[in-house]
Structures are given as structure tokens and as C-alpha cells.
């Protein structure tokens, strides 16, 4: 590993999608993995997608108990740009010598049929899902007093419904294969714990409050089902991603300013949190990590 | 007032709907109002609908500052059965001599177009809405590990989307008429504050966590807009309504048992909470009332 | 009732103390009670003490189920100034024709021995306590990075320890007399639910977070003990009392400014909340009322 | 490193105390450190004390940005048994070849004067404190309805007052040496976030709710002071320590049973959380890690 890939992609092409990462050589020491930076691919996909393949999820799986004696299948939802979606990205991963295989799925997460088809294809082609990371999420700048219903609905569809559907499908996939040490990780937000006085994220905050409840409810149901599958959410403050550019898609300057006022969390900080959570011993369930940029005030 | 009306209705006919209560004689002392019990109409509609007309909302409006020198229009969403929906109910109210006029609207709250049509009709016929009580809400018994998407979506549509749409429309109605002392009340739940180990209400709990955030976000936006319109949620534990019968619609015995184990909150307890909140002086904003049956353990 | 009493008192004389209100004529209709304003006595004592005797606690007990067929003894802790402490206040109450008798106790609430002596005297002289309102509370302006330990300890002693001791003693008093419908009300704060960026109230906020937990723990223990005694907290935002004058005792202008920026909650708003909570039917337990001035932003 | 030390100690000797760990060779790769288990020393001291010296805090400091070009001084409070308190432990650490020097301080944390003397000695002898871990904490089995005041006060003194005093002293130590990248870590509890129906931990829960507020208040004050010092709490569920033996000191069987029903968190799981938090880049502030045993139900 080491050299840079430079796929051409653009934020305008991004949409919520999903990746499946098949780790073919579990147990690879993390020191053999390297960090690659992807210069273009905006949004949370940077966190755990391309860049994350080396340093993030790849490493996470390499150290995860899941990978000791079997292949592991990690499902990850996120913003995926068109150019990263094709075989090009997978080929680059392969040529870079990563210990895992990237299998991108194109999927509109706001469409349940597409999600179900994807999980069906995953089952047919790759057995199933052992780890599910519900990372796709978005905000639309629609205040409660004046917002457009369509923007609210989009947030509900991706942040709440898709999370719930993927969680259920991933759990059923684990259950039918008797996976007892799976993991479901919801990327939440500090907005899922307190409501800040910014009207453009109020409805978003409501969807993330729902994620807080969904994660705890999931934990309880997993206990009731007597499995050791773990449920976690990670609740970041301001992360430098394409999030603000999606939020303020008519005002890129405002979006950029969001990330310039303080030193923000980075994609790899999120990846490190995921690694920490996944690599904890099976008897340790991290329920929530609340993290902010050190300089963030509210 | 005093005699009993006995409209024929049945729980099977109930669906989320809305009532508009026009108070024609504001300022009527609450001692002139009487409590009527409605023997059939299940569900939360009992709280503030028929029964509430006398003792609940009627009284609330009678003592509310809103009613000092003008007509007041109160919008209330709830479960409404078909038989209560027609002119029969309104006629009974009139003949009973209530100081307000009940104007029922038939409206599928999970359909935005119907909500918008209703608010448009309210504007044309009755000026607008001064007080909005988002009471309609439901649970479907769909756990997170195995639930049906459709049940989840119904909960989202009524508990989150309809609340948000009605709130926005009510606020816009207040704004265009320069109403500065309006009130928006969301009927939340103790499930909106903590997640209890009952898988059948986990998704419901997520929708109510969203309501918690929506109410606080609304409060902040109302402050930012420099109005004195108030935002409140009321968070009950177990209330004896048709809720459990809707939740366990295939298992009425289980539903009935829900209300027999302890002495539950009653419809009028909810009405009294609404009265307390509405009748507080304009400078007092009750943000949340958390209330449980005294005997409720969890 | 009606004429004004004007005891001479001064904020400098105030200290945490307690009142016992003996309601000799329970069931007196609240319409026979009148509101009196006390012009001098600063602090939360105004809420439920003197002024409250007519309109607040007196009314509350008059409508409380507790008072149907027996004397009721209400214990109330608050800031009490020296001049109000003596027989003068009690005499004024009597001559004003209130339906209850005020029995002031001088008690340093930060001294457990004094509290125990007081409860012992209450038992000997007046049977015991049926309703306990833990209202005494204070803030000292000691930030976490630089505060004086003594100020922190004073807050702990009054806001946490005295609340816990009075609660235990009141419960034991109810238990030994087989009172099953008692009530313990803790005056909490919105600072008990979220931490606002004002360093002078950070430690205070920690003591009020403790009160939030104490109230819920109390509720659970009362259920476990199979009683119907109720546990409530009331969580106000900014109330116009002597609180700020105690907080900024070196800077009365700053204290005064606290209450001038917005239209604050008043003593009677707190009394009304207590009345609402106490007069709810025995099967209704209000766990928390969160209330702010309508104009309060944070 | 590698061989086992077997200091003789006993739980009866344990009391809240403090250790200062001086890392003389910062930057030592964690791979050169090894895990040692201490067979006797009960309680949370196992987490980060002896055992932690190799694998826990030592490693944490070895990877912490703090240690790049200077000595680092880490202050840690915990349960320390008499036998571990003397020079014996320090000598063993030295002979084991650890890259840090252990400097035990005997200190009754419930006595402010002793704390101040300790910090004064630390200043004179070792410059000051760069990282402060407030780990000492305890529960006494005193329910709210019937508990002894003394048990409550002990919990307040150690869990709230000592945390606050050590935090203030540590911050002042950082401030006077212009340390901008210090860290204060409070060991909180899941009981600091929700109240569970176990009366023996209700007051304990109140003290931990206070810690939740103290940590967020601290974060805000550190931002207001424009430093990059970080504030973190870690909130574990059931950890296998001496905690239950202290709680049920009259009933060791009950204490032991606490840890046998499920597979608990271990001391090293706590150490790993501390390492994760400390080794995050300076711009990343982990505010809270909520973690439970995977099998823990409530």
C-alpha cells in the first residue's frame, strides 16, 4: 500500500449508498495496513469508505474478534459518489494490496425495496453481514416553523427508516447464520443528545434523538434474544465532511465557513472511534461515545 | 349540560383525525361547564374530544388568557371514530349548551395533502388556529429486530410528520394574524424520555424521543422569532385509552390487561394537565409535564 | 383576609429554615382564601411561605385529597428571615383568618442535628408530616476551575443533604402513622436537567442533577415499599426571588439585572405548580414539571 | 517486565488514596510495555494502579501527545491498600523496568486539607499535574427512605467534593505552568445517566448525576478560558472490582454474587477506555464513553 488513487468524483454526484467490505484475510496486523487519503470524495464516506479501507474499517476488522477464524462481512452505509461506486474503486483497492475486498453496492437508502434487494444480493453472493455500520445520514436546512415537508421526510427516510431497516436485515442475517458476536453501530450525533439553538438542524436533531432511542432499544432486544451481538452509537460534534455542503447546498461559502471556525473532528477520528468500539473484547459493549472537537463551544 | 349522549361508535372505525373547537363565548367561568362522559369513543379522543369539550378544553379556553377579548380557535388532533365525526356530535354539543362550537374535520393525518386542505378550510371558514394540540399518536407492535416497515412508517407519519406539519401550519396561521399568545402542545410520552424493556414500544419510543426534541426546537425557534407563543409537551405514562387496543389489535385481552394491573391515568387527568398548561399566565411556559400513574413501577 | 402585614425584615437576616403549616380546617374551598403579598421577605420563602399561606400552600391543602377528613401537616423548607420567624408572623396569620395555622421552626438546614430536633419536636407537638416540600436551595458563585470549597459545601449541605434528610424523616413520619397518601416535593431547577454556560451556576447545577436522581430514586423506593406516597420535582427556570441576591451578595446591581432582562417566573407561579401537583387525584403522580419564563432563551 | 509481584494486601486496608505517576521516558512504544496482573489489590485501583502501570496509564502516556518532549505527571485517585502504598510498590515498579516512576501518596480524599497538602507536595517535588484521573469513588448501601446520613456524606465527600477539589487543583497546576493540553478524566458510572431500581445505589446514583454535570460544566469553563485542556467522563456499568465488596461490606457473598451473574467489565477494559481517551489527538475531546458488560440487562 502507499500510492495515491485519484478517482474523479464530485459532491453533486453523491447520494446515500452502501459498501460491503469483505475481509478475506482476517487477522492481518494493523501495522501492515496503511492510511490513504482520498482527495476528492466528500462526505462521511471519507470517514470509513475509501480512506477508511486502509486505516479505518480494515484495521478495525483486522483486530476484531470476529475475524479470528472466518471471513467477516462488514456492511457500511454512507455517502457514495458515482465515481467511487464502480469497479474502479474496487480495483484500486485490490491493486493496493489491502487485506479486504471492497464490494460496492449502489443503493438508494430511502427506498426500502432497494435495501432489501441489496441484502438479498449480499446473502446470495457473500453469505451475509456480520458488522453493520449505519453511517449514512443527512440534514436539510428546514426549520420547524417554516420548513418544507419534503426535506423533513428525506431526513426521516435516511436517518431513521434506513437505519431501522438495515439494522433489522443485518440482525436477521446474523441470526440465520448463528452469528453471536455481530455488531451494529449507529453513527449518531451530539444533536441526538441536546437541542442547540440553530433552527436549520432542529428537525435533524429530532431524527438523531430517535437514533439514541433506537440504539438503546436495540441493545435491550439483543439482550432479550440472549445473543452477544452488540449495539453501539457514536455521537460526534462537528466533523469535517461533506455534511455542511449537503446541508447548505445553495451556499457553499457558508458550508465552508462551518469547518473553518474551529479545528473540527476529522474522518479518521470517526474511524478510530469505530475501531475502538469494534476491537473491544466481546464482553465489552460500548453503548455510546460522545465526542466533540476540543474547541467546540456548544 | 348534564344528560348523556350515546352516539354509536366502535373502535374499529377510529382513525387519526382532527377537531376544531371554536369557543364562541370565551371567558365563561369553568364552573358553568360540566363533565360528560362518553361511553364508547375509545382512545385519546376521550381525553380532549367529547368529554373534554365540557371539562377539558372548554374549561381550558374559558380560563385561558387567549379568550379575554376575542374568539379563540383551538385545533386538536386525535383518534376520532366515524360516528363521532359527523354533524351528530356537533349537534349534541350545541344542544347541551356548551359555550363552544365543535367543528369536526375528517382528515387522514398521515396524508399531508389532507392536512393542508384542512388548514386551508379552517382559514377560509374560521380565520385560523390559536391553540394547536397535537394529540394524535399511535404505537404498532413492531420490534426493532423483526418489525414490519409499514408499522414503523405509520408511527413516523402520525407521531412525527403530522405533528411537524400541523405545528408549522398552526404557527403560520398565528403569524399571519399577528397572534402573539398562541400555544402549541405536543402530547408526548414517558417513552419519549427513557427506553423501557418492552420491544413492542421501542420504535414508538424513538418517535417520542423525536417529539421531545421537536418541542424544545420549537421553543427555541419561537424565541428566535421574538413571539410569546408557547411550546409545551405533556409526557404521560400509562393512560387508559384505546391506545393498547390499537397496539394489540389482534389481542384485545392483552390490551385490556394493560389497563387492569394498576390504576391508570384517565382521560380527564390528561385534560387537567392541558388546562393547567393553557391557563398558566402568558409569561409562564410549561415546557414538559412528566406524569405517571402513582402505581406505575417502570 | 385582606389587609397587609409589614414585618420588618431584611435579606441579610435570611437563612435556610423551615415552616410547618398546620391546616386545621381542611377542605376549605380555595375561593375563601385570598392572596396576600409580602413586600419585604426576599427569596423563595415568598413562593410558599407568607404569601403562599393564603394563595399557595393553604389553597393547595384546601383542595388536596389529604385534607378531606383529618388535619394535615405540611412541612416546608425555605429561606426564612429572622423577622418572619417569630410568633409575629404566626399571629398575623391567625388574625387574618387563614384556615391553617403557621408554626415556624428555626432550623439551620445545614446542621443535621437541628433538623432531627425539629422533626422530633414536630412529632411531639403536631403528630408528624404529611406533605414535605423541600424548597430551600441556594447557589454560591464558585466556578469549577477556581471556586472556594466552602461555597461548594454549603450548596451540597442545603441542596442535597438537607433534602435527603428531610425526605427520610418525613417518610418515616408518614410510615409510623400509616399515611399512604403523603407527598414529597423537591424544588429542582432547569439547571438540574441541562448545564448552561454560566460558570457561577455550574456547581449548583451539579447539586440539582443530584436532585433529579434523588426524586426518581425516591419514586422507585416508594413503589417498592408499596405505598401511594408520591414523589415530585418541579424544575423552574428563572424565578424572581432572592436567589440572585444570595448568589451575587457582593453585587446587588448584577442580582437585580438578572430579573430585569426578561419577564421572570413569579413566586405565585411556583405556588400554582405546587397546587396543581398536590391537588392531582391520588392515582396521578406528577414526576416533574419543567417550566421557564416564556421569554427565557437558554 | 514480566514476572509477578505479590505484595500482601487486603481489602480491609483499602481507603481512597492517590498515586502520582511520573513518566520519565515518554514516548516509549506501547509494545515495550507489558500487562501484569495484581492478584490481591481489590477495587478500582486495579484498573489503573498497579496493573495499569504497565498496560494502562503507562501505555496511555506513552502514546499521548503530552509525552512528546517533556516529562508528564499524571495524577490518579483510587482505592489504595496499605500494603501497596509504601515504597514496596514503587520499588517493584522500578525493578520491573517500567518506563515510569510510581510515586504513591497517602491521602484521605475526604479531607480537603490532606488533598491540598498533597498537591502542594506534588508542586514542590514534581512540578505539577498534567493529567488528572478522578477515579476514587464508592457506594454505601443506604437507601433514600431509611439510609444513614453518614453513608450519604461519605459518598458526597469522595464522589463529588474530592472530584471537584482535585479538578480545581489540577487545573490550577496546569494553568500556572501554561499547560494547554492537559486532561481531566472523571470516572463516572451508567448510574450517572439513569436511575435503576436498586435502592442501595440510589444515593450513589445522585452523586454520579452530579459528576455528569460537573464534567460538562468543566468542559464549558475550559472553553471559556480558551485552553485546550480536555474534560472527559467514562461511564461504566458493572465492573469487577472491590466496589461491591465495599458496598456490601457486611455481606461478602452478596458482593461476590454481583460479579458472577454475568461476564463483567474488567479493570483492563477501563484502562483501555482511558488509553483511548488520552491518546486521541489534541483536537478530539471524548466527552463521555458509556459502556456496559455485553450481558448486562438493565
Question: Which structural traits does this protein have?
Answer:
homotetramer; 11 helices; 7-stranded mixed sheet; NAD(P)-bd_dom_sf (chains A, B, C, D); 298 residues; disordered N terminus; alpha/beta
Summarize the structure.
The structure is a homotetramer of 298-residue chains. Chain A is an alpha/beta fold and 298 residues long.
Average pLDDT for all residues of chain A = 73
Strand order of the largest sheet of chain A: 3-1-2-4-5-6-7
By oligomeric state, this entry counts as homotetramer
The outline of chain A comes out as: globular
The Rg value of chain A, from CA coordinates, equals: 18 Å
Structural notes for this entry:
- Four copies of one chain form a homotetramer.
- Helix content of chain A is 41%, strand content 17%.
- In chain A, strands 3-1-2-4-5-6-7 form a seven-stranded mixed beta sheet, with helices on both faces.
- The N terminus of chain A is likely disordered.
- At the A-B interface, helix 7 and helix 8 of A face helix 7 and helix 8 of B.
Topology:
The structure is a homotetramer of 298-residue chains.
Chain A lengths: L14 E9 L21 H4 L1 H6 L1 H7 L8 E9 L1 H4 L1 H9 L4 E6 L6 H15 L4 E4 L14 H28 L6 E5 L14 H23 L5 E7 L6 H5 L4 H7 L8 H13 L4 E10 L5
Parallel strand pairs in A: 2-4, 4-5, 5-6, 6-7
Antiparallel strand pairs in A: 1-2, 1-3
Helix pairs in contact in A: 3-11, 6-7, 7-8
Amino acid at each position: 500500500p502507499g500510492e495515491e488513487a485519484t478517482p474523479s468524483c464530485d459532491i453533486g454526484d453523491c447520494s446515500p449508498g452502501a459498501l460491503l467490505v469483505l475481509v478475506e484475510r482476517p487477522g492481518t496486523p494493523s501495522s501492515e495496513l496503511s492510511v490513504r487519503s482520498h482527495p476528492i470524495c466528500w462526505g462521511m464516506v471519507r470517514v470509513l469508505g475509501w480512506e477508511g479501507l486502509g486505516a479505518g474499517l480494515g484495521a478495525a476488522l483486522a483486530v476484531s474478534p470476529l475475524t479470528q477464524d472466518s471471513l467477516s462481512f462488514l456492511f457500511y452505509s454512507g455517502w457514495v459518489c458515482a465515481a467511487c461506486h464502480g469497479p474502479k474503486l474496487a480495483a484500486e483497492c485490490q491493486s493496493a494490496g489491502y487485506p479486504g475486498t471492497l464490494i460496492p453496492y449502489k443503493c438508494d437508502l430511502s427506498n426500502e425495496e432497494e435495501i432489501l434487494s441489496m441484502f438479498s444480493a449480499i446473502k446470495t453472493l457473500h453469505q451475509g453481514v456480520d458488522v453493520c455500520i449505519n453511517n449514512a445520514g443527512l440534514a436539510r436546512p428546514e426549520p420547524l416553523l417554516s420548513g418544507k415537508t419534503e426535506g423533513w421526510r428525506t431526513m426521516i427516510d435516511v436517518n431513521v427508516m434506513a437505519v431501522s431497516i438495515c439494522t433489522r436485515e443485518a440482525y436477521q442475517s446474523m441470526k440465520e447464520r448463528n452469528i453471536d458476536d455481530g455488531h451494529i453501530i449507529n453513527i449518531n450525533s451530539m444533536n441526538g443528545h441536546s437541542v442547540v439553538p440553530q433552527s436549520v438542524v432542529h428537525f435533524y436533531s429530532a431524527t438523531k434523538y430517535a437514533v439514541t432511542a433506537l440504539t438503546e432499544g436495540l441493545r435491550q432486544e439483543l439482550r432479550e434474544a440472549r445473543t452477544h451481538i452488540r449495539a453501539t452509537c457514536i455521537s460526534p460534534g462537528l466533523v469535517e465532511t461533506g455534511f455542511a455542503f449537503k446541508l447548505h447546498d445553495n451556499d457553499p461559502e457558508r458550508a465552508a465557513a462551518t469547518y473553518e471556525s474551529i479545528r473540527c473532528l476529522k474522518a479518521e477520528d470517526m474511524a478510530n472511534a469505530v475501531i475502538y468500539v469494534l476491537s473491544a473484547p466481546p464482553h465489552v459493549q460500548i453503548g455510546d461515545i460522545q465526542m466533540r472537537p476540543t474547541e467546540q463551544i456548544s
